[in-house]
Amino acid sequence: MSGVGLVVYTAVHCGLPLSIAGLPATPPGLNALQIGAAVVLTVTFALSMHTPPRELLAAAIGGGLIWVLYTLLREAAFSPIIAAGVSAAAIGTIAHFAASWARRPALPYVVPLIGPLLPGTALYRGLLELGGGNVSQGLLHLTQALAIGMALAAGICVGGELVRAFRGTPIAAVASNWRRPAARRRPRILIASPAFDHKPNRCHIVRT
User: What pLDDT sits at residue 27?
Assistant: First the structure.
């Protein structure tokens, strides 16, 4: 954020033609282009976090789902903050559950999902308006960007807590039966040392 603000401030005071009118203003939609862009952004975000290749398909599906849910909420007249928080909570719960079911860390499943909803445009708009002297509008957009980021973080945390609360219930016990069985260890047999051993109480552990 500080780097973007410094570049915008320098560009404005050097007289470079930066205009808010050039920022993207297309509303979120359910067309193939926007959904595909959300999927690509999520996969790119996952690759930047060194997510294992086997997790990329789950990240792509989650990125598309969170964009679809966010768009539906926005079309239902919800604010961007509420839409982002609810979308992150819903898809984050599914991602946490998938990670728990697969017995894998949740971060590769959860963190890349918020990539399509990060408030980059609102952040850049606020910094550009602050650099241009429009302090009130700049602070307004920066506050909105901060609120969206906090809503995304809170939604992801809520999803994790819901999955933790779900553990121990009968439904969770049924779901655990579909998991891959854990590796079985061979039993160990203790064999006493011969009588001529220098340490009579010593035992050998033999795997069968």
Answer: 81
Query: So where are the chain's domains?
Result: 2-176
Burial profile 93-122: b = 16 or more Cβ within 10 angstroms, e = fewer: bbbbbbbbeeeeebebbbbbbbbbbbbeeb
pTM: 0.73
Task: Spell out the alpha helix ranges (H) of the chain.
Answer: 2-13, 32-48, 56-75, 80-102, 107-110, 120-131, 135-166, 170-176
Separation of alpha carbons 103 and 11, rounded Å: 49
List Cβ<8 Å contacts ≥24 apart for 38-47: 38/63, 38/64, 38/66, 38/67, 38/115, 38/116, 39/63, 39/64, 41/115, 41/116, 42/112, 42/113, 42/115, 42/116, 43/112, 44/115, 45/111, 45/112, 45/115, 46/108, 46/112
Q: Which residues share a beta bridge with 192?
A: 203
- Three-state DSSP state, 188: strand
Query: Where is mean pLDDT largest: 45-54, 76-85, 174-183?
Result: 76-85
Q: Is 49 helix (H, G, I), strand (E, B) or coil?
A: coil
